[in-house]
Design brief:
- The two termini are 36 Å apart.
- With 706 residues, this protein is α+β, with helices and mostly antiparallel strands.
- α15 packs across α16, α20 (406-415) packs antiparallel against α21 and α27 (623-634) runs antiparallel to α28.
- The longest helix is centred in the middle third of the chain and has 23 residues, at 425-447.
- It is built from 29 helices and 17 strands.
- The strands form five sheets. The chain has a five-stranded mixed β-barrel. A four-stranded mixed β-sheet has the order 16-15-13-17. Strands 5-7-6 form a three-stranded mixed β-sheet.
- It folds into five domains: 1-31, no CATH class; 116-280, no CATH class; 297-467, DNA polymerase, domain 1; 497-602, Nucleic acid-binding proteins (OB fold (Dihydrolipoamide Acetyltransferase, E2P)), CATH 2.40.50.140; 606-687, no CATH class.
- The radius of gyration is 33 Å and the shape is globular.
């Protein structure tokens, strides 16, 4: 905390000038470095021969469950059995996908008896479209799938076992052997049937045990003792096992001691990181099942994935982006169409055909921030009982106000879920007080068994005109900000849409194409700052910022360190449109950008335009229009040369280079003015599309090379 105050100017200022901040910080200084909590293993279960209270100290955790007060080591040393029962959310996704298919389309998926040679499934895996596929979501694993070209469940099992710290070092050799680039050799012919499926590399613990059995005559129990000794690296036990192994090799297969020792060293190497094959195979089956569902039933699969992670707006955004890549439209929430959770929908309203695959996903009402499942269930019951809601007044009178409170209705309005009432969101918001008051009065009358004369005469839904306060719609930026906040994605547009021409002209890459660039290559990318997280590096003690940059294709994280953060921190504000020149880094799951320069996106035309072209038609030119062209250039003075491209009636093109006096400053305003005067497409530019130069490193500057 003290280091943060010393290195973050904003925090230091707040600490010195704001009493509340000072109070919070001083309380934090007292608590700093104290033990925060006693952690509990998420899946560990201790089993004993008698009630555990007789064997070790117990306590209640925060949720009221009984947990041990001993750590993992002492529990094992007491002779108690500790087992891990993993609860996988993926199994819930698989079940929900199958249930959704059964309910909406009458399809029964034999999920436990899928064909293991399904071509579309392997095609999806080999294209690395594995977001949401169990164990295969990370950037590194996706790259491995693409390079390996999976064609069997055995391949999938091996990759899952290899992609962990330690055995990852073997992946390059494994890939070369897979594609026949290097020969597969075995230390002894008896190892070939054991290691053939993994191209001569021992990937699994079972292979180590099999080798000990076949080569040295170990029993199954003895082989397991050997595996554990190797895995835990117990020196004394290892020496005893080495002597036993060498002697067994000589007696069983006449293998000389020198070769037996080499094989033992090889087994030690592999046993240190070998994975349990039965574990890897079980994971591979679950991975295959999720890939199969995604390949054949993407709409239902994405519905189940989104429902599973509906509290995580960041993940929702990723799934929505991926769904759109699959050609699936994600429709916003609607109180008259949406269900509790995400569900298949139709782009065009009307009766759907159960035999055809849906083309859209309808946003689940419970996924709107600020709306609980109890409120949605109440809404759905009212809709099932009385049909579609005709207006805000009809809605407020029919739902239970105890469940669907004002906060929930406000969230429905701001997220666009009430757009089907045919009024602007601003109008619905302004009318909410009057509408709720009228609904409360009607509810009180019903509770007393009263009804007014006009109420008895009404047979249709409640009319809304007398409760509405019609006002102009909110600005587009406000609408979009509310959608992003409540839903995690934009429904009615994107804040970057006005900047699309600038991005198309001046960016060298998009967030979607970053993964195709070489590691540590330089690029230029534009977008909108969506979030900024600041902190202090434990290593350097300096402040940094982790920025999420969005463009029209997705998002990327930008890590601003040291002098870059100090120099450009004023530009790193949410909703700021920026252009970033920086290095692409593929060191983690998704590409990151390490910037060396950041500038406002509006400055990109001035910075990267080499020449401006005005495309004119001679047939439309007259003295007045030429004067307008001259006035246009004079209104935007600058240093960029201009070229007039005049198309003659016969089709030939004449280029006219005006005097240097008419050089301009390229900008979106100049482009819009030119197109307004002479027609769309008049303004053209030649852009500097060269890759940015890499700034010299600090050590290069110190050595005089910068």
């Amino acid at each position: 905390m003290r280091k943060a105050i010393a290195t973050i100017p904003e925090l230091q200022t707040a600490y010195e000038t704001e009493p509340m901040t000072r109070e919070v910080v001083e309380a934090g200084l007292v608590l700093e470095d104290l033990t925060r909590n006693a952690s509990v293993h998420a899946a560990g279960v201790v089993i004993g021969p008698e009630p555990l209270v007789n064997l070790l100290p117990l306590k209640l955790d925060d949720a009221g469950g009984i947990v041990t007060q001993y750590a993992m080591g002492p529990v094992g040393e007491l002779g108690l059995l500790k087992m891990d029962f993993l609860g996988l959310k993926t199994l819930t996704v698989i079940r929900n996908t199958c249930e959704l298919l059964r309910r909406t389309r009458g399809i029964e998926v034999p999920i436990d008896h899928l064909p293991l040679d399904d071509a579309p499934t392997y095609d999806l895996l080999n294209k690395a479209n594995t977001l949401g596929v169990f164990q295969l979501e990370s950037g590194g694993m996706r790259d491995l799938c693409r390079r390996f070209q999976i064609s069997s469940i055995e391949h999938l099992t091996a990759l899952i076992a290899l992609y962990r710290p330690g055995p990852m070092d073997l992946i390059p050799d494994f890939l070369r052997r897979r594609h026949g680039e290097i020969a597969i050799e075995y230390e002894h012919p008896l190892l070939e049937p054991i290691c053939r499926e993994t191209y001569g590399i021992m990937v699994y613990q079972e292979q180590v045990m099999q080798a000990a059995q076949v080569l040295a005559g170990y029993t199954l129990g003895g082989a397991d003792v050997l595996r554990r000794a190797m895995g835990k690296k117990m020196p004394e036990e290892m020496e005893r096992e080495r002597a036993k192994f060498v002697q067994g090799c000589r007696q069983t297969n006449h293998i000389p001691p020198a070769q037996a020792n080499r094989i033992f060293d090889l087994l030690v190497k592999f046993a240190g990181y070998g994975f349990n094959k039965s574990h890897a195979a079980a994971y591979a089956v679950v991975a295959y099942q999720t890939a199969y569902l995604k390949a054949h039933y993407p709409v239902e699969f994405f519905c189940a994935m989104m429902t599973n992670d509906m509290a995580d707006t960041d993940k929702l955004g990723q799934y929505i982006e991926e769904a759109r890549l699959f050609g699936i439209e994600v429709l916003g929430p609607d109180v008259n169409e949406s269900e509790l959770h995400f569900a298949p929908g139709q782009v065009n309203s009307g009766p759907s055909d159960r035999t055809t695959a849906p083309r859209a996903i309808r946003f689940g009402l419970a996924a709107i921030k600020g709306v609980g499942e109890v409120a949605v269930q109440s809404l759905l019951e009212a809709r099932a009982k009385g049909g579609r809601f005709a207006s805000l007044a009809d809605f407020c009178e029919r739902v239970d106000s105890r469940a669907v409170n004002r906060k929930a209705i406000e969230a429905f309005i701001k997220s666009g879920a009430c757009d089907s009432f045919g009024e602007t969101r601003a109008t619905l918001w302004a009318s909410l007080d009057r509408t709720l008051a009228r609904a409360a009065t009607a509810a009180q009358d019903r509770a007393r068994g009263q009804a007014n004369l006009f109420g008895l005469m009404e047979t249709g839904p409640v009319k809304a005109d007398d409760t509405l306060v019609r006002v102009p719609e909110w600005p587009q930026s406000e609408l979009l900000a509310a959608e992003k906040e409540l839903l995690g994605f934009y429904v009615t547009g994107h804040p970057l849409t006005p900047y699309a021409p600038l991005l198309n002209r001046y960016a060298l890459a998009t967030t979607r194409s970053l993964g195709e660039l070489p590691n540590r290559s330089m690029t230029r990318i534009g977008g909108l700052v969506s979030t900024v997280q600041t902190g202090v590096s434990k290593k350097s003690g300096k402040a940094y910022a982790l920025v999420t940059l969005e463009d029209l294709t997705g998002s990327v994280q930008v890590l601003c360190l040291n002098e870059v953060f100090d120099k450009f921190r004023d530009l790193l504000k949410p909703l700021a449109a920026v252009m970033i020149l920086g290095e692409v880094n593929h060191g983690e799951d998704k590409p990151k950008i390490f910037p060396q320069e950041i500038l406002p996106l509006e400055e990109a035309p001035r910075r990267f335009t080499q020449e401006v072209f005005l495309r004119l038609h001679a047939a439309h030119l007259d003295p007045e229009r030429l004067k307008a062209a001259r006035a246009l250039l004079e209104a935007h003075p600058g240093r960029c040369p201009v070229l007039l491209s005049i198309e003659m009636p016969a089709g030939e093109v004449v280029f006219v280079e005006p005097h240097d006096h008419y050089r301009v400053t390229p900008s979106a305003e100049l482009a819009a003015a030119a197109d307004r005067l002479f027609g769309e497409g008049t303004y053209q530019v030649r852009v500097d599309r060269s890759v940015p130069n890499r700034a010299p490193r600090r050590w290069e500057k110190r050595n005089g090379n910068g």
